[in-house]
Design brief:
Structural class: alpha/beta
CATH topology of the largest domain: Rossmann fold
CATH superfamily of the largest domain: HUPs
Strand order of the largest sheet: 6-10-5-1-2-4-12
Number of domains: 2
Number of helices: 5
CATH architecture of the largest domain: 3-Layer(aba) Sandwich
Largest sheet: 7 strands, parallel
Helix content: 25-40%
Number of strands: 14
Order of helices and strands: HEHEEEHEHEEEEEEEEHE
């Protein structure tokens, strides 16, 4: 009797092991098949008219897109007022560029205009599996709205891509913990929206592609948002010799140890010693001085 029970237990264990192996093989076959058809759309940061290459944050997003789709096509979408004429230095992984012109009465910085452009591009090419942007103020402005329109919850502030996009690592609890997110598509044609932290990915290497064939498209954005409820007032940009916090190589911060606001100049001198203006971002948090 005991030998029969042991035999039955062994057969059950063997059956469960065989089931796991079959499930693993099926998952590997599914992943191998899905990676072939991956197609990624990278939404670029604003591109100045005189720029010769893409913004640094966009180059980091392209690196993340390459890790998701090493062999699949990567298209860059830029919402502009006028198409940049000097843009020739591009990563080799970019297959095509799309310049979507914003309406004259609006601004390309509005989330409504950006979402209209992305939806228009996705309607033209329904094969996109991922939409990637940088986790900057620009990307964080339109991505939640886009996710709400499309009925998809975005994965934000990604710092690592695992297994070709099978899972993503992002910080939580103010950066005190890391979580692994496994995206689940509601259907075969569902798209994954994500933003990536540009300091967590290397900037994609650019080469002169003026002589190489790269597909460039240009079209006007057809607005679907209620224009009477949206009005662009303008923008006020504070100019500084130091880079933005999200793109700085070194961050120097100070707090209670400085004791008073008059001592903040010490941090400025330290920042200059560490690399000079233009490469260091200086930021202070101190309870003795309001910002």
């Amino acid at each position: 009797m005991r030998s029969k029970m042991k035999m039955l237990s062994s057969l059950k264990q063997l059956g469960s092991t065989t089931t796991r192996i079959r499930s693993s093989l099926l998952l590997q076959q599914y992943n191998a098949a899905s990676r072939v058809s991956l197609s990624t759309l990278v939404v670029s940061e604003p591109i100045p008219n005189e720029a010769t290459t893409l913004p640094a944050a966009t180059l980091a997003a392209i690196t993340a897109a390459t890790q998701i789709s090493p062999s699949g096509p990567i298209k860059v979408l830029a919402v502009v007022r006028e198409s940049p004429s000097l843009l020739t230095s591009l990563p080799s992984s970019v297959s095509s560029l799309v310049f979507a012109k914003s309406p004259p009465s609006s601004s390309f910085l509005l989330a409504e205009v950006l979402c209209d452009a992305i939806q228009q591009e996705m309607n033209k090419n329904p094969s996109y599996t991922h939409v990637v942007t940088a986790a900057t103020k620009f990307g964080n402005n339109f991505l939640p709205r886009l996710g709400a329109i499309m009925g998809v919850s975005p994965i934000t502030d990604v710092i690592q891509v695992e297994e070709g996009g099978a899972s993503f690592i992002r910080p939580t609890y103010a950066g005190n913990a890391l979580v692994r997110v496994h995206p689940k598509r509601s259907s075969a044609d569902a798209c994954i929206f994500l933003s990536v932290r540009n300091t967590a990915f290397e900037k994609a290497t650019c080469t002169d592609r003026s002589g190489n064939s790269i597909l460039m498209e240009e079209w006007d954005i057809i607005s679907t948002s209620p224009s009477e409820k949206i009005q662009w007032k303008g923008e006020h940009v504070s100019k500084s010799d130091r880079p933005d916090l999200t793109s700085a190589r070194v961050v120097v911060s100070g707090g209670r140890g400085l004791k008073s606001g008059e001592n903040f100049v010490l941090l400025e001198k330290l920042a200059d010693k560490l690399g000079g203006a233009g490469r260091i971002f200086f930021v202070c948090f101190c309870s003795f001085k309001a910002f």
